Amino acid sequence: MNPARRSRLISLGAFAVGAAIFAATLYYIDFHLIASMGRRLAIAVALSLVASGIWHLARTWAWAWCFPASVKIPFLRLARVRLAAEAFSYLTLRGIAGEPLKVVLLAHEVDPRIATAAVALERIGYMVGTTLVIGAGSLIAIA
Predict the structure, then answer these.
(1) What angle do CA 89, 115, 96 make, to 5 degrees?
(2) Cβ(71)–Cβ(110) under 8 Å?
(3) Is the pTM of this model over 0.90?
């Protein structure tokens, strides 16, 4: 089987698994409870989705900066790869499988060494940024 066909089959299989998990999730959601919660829940969900979307876009933007200037990958491609890897991470041990998956998904566009370095740099930047935010919050809480 040629690599393009195999890649297409893997993509379709991943989509089918994702669709099945989504359908199972919808099966167990109590829509009557959600409807009774009304406007409060709708506002909270909308704000949560906006905050999550901004967070994902900011991390994708930061990751795009981690590639050398000579490497041009479209932002939407990076966003799709990052979201796919994040989703896969939630199904496995957090971060162990998702980060290498980014390198694998970008293998056709970028040298794996460059992709690995960009993933590692973004991850280190994320950890440093998180440490600074938590440290600042702790100092404020102490004060």
Answers:
(1) 25
(2) yes
(3) no
